[in-house]
Amino acid sequence: MNKNKNTAELILDVAQSIVQEFGFNGFSYAHIAEKVGIRTASIHYYFPNKEDLGEALIARYYKNFISSVAQIDTDTQDNLEKLRKFILLYDAPVQEYCTCLSVMLSTDLATLSGNVREGVAQFFAANLEWLERVLDQGRAGGHLNFEGTAEVRAHQFLASLQGAQLLARSFRDVSRFNRIADGLISALT
């Protein structure tokens, strides 16, 4: 990777960490510059304005999500195990008492650019589509048992994980996330 790519990725890494802790409106380029050890002008070189940074953040987050669920699909055929691995994607930020980038961006949705809002919606749609497919396949294969449609269950599953992140963060208690995640799995068996 070239130096420009390294610096841009480092900026995105730091920005994502800050957003996941403080929200999109809770920081400035000066905060990133201080953590990265560069001038704010350097950040503007890669991301001319905060909207550009937001678009890059959600685009990268979406790309990483698509890659992660593709890996889950490759690694296992067991739909219950796929759901357990999906939960781990949402568990990672909880370990730092943060929420996922998409949840934090959603809290600032009214102040985000149209492209960032569309990126957040695209991210959630991809989550729901993947969950619905896995739930449908699991029920058809006799491995998952639930009432109602897979579409409704996918929405409930995703909303529960997002809410579990918020509760774990609010109480600074990872076990709250774990209890909800365990309940989601046990409700399907």
Explain this structure to me?
The chain has one domain (51-186): Orthogonal Bundle (Tetracycline Repressor, domain 2). Helices cover 77% and strands 0% of the residues. It is built from nine helices and no strands. Helix 5 (79-94) runs antiparallel to helix 9, helix 7 packs across helix 8 (150-171) and helix 8 packs antiparallel against helix 9 (174-186). By secondary structure, it is mostly helical. The mean pLDDT is 95. The N and C termini lie far apart (45 Å).
Output the keywords.
single chain; 9 helices; mainly alpha
Short description:
Keywords: DNA-binding, Transcription, Transcription regulation. This protein is mainly alpha-helical and 189 residues long.
CATH superfamily: Tetracycline Repressor, domain 2
Low-confidence stretches: none
Query: What is the CATH topology assignment?
Result: Tetracycline Repressor, domain 2
End-to-end span in angstroms?
Answer: 45 Å
Which CATH architecture is right?
Answer: Orthogonal Bundle
Class per helix and strand makeup: mainly alpha
- What portion of residues is helical? over 70%
Largest sheet: none
Order of helices and strands: HHHHHHHHH
Total number of distinct structural domains:
1
Shape: elongated
Mean pLDDT: 95
Strand content: under 5%
Radius of gyration: 18 Å
Number of strands: 0
The level 1 CATH classification is: Mainly Alpha
> What is the overall number of helices?
9
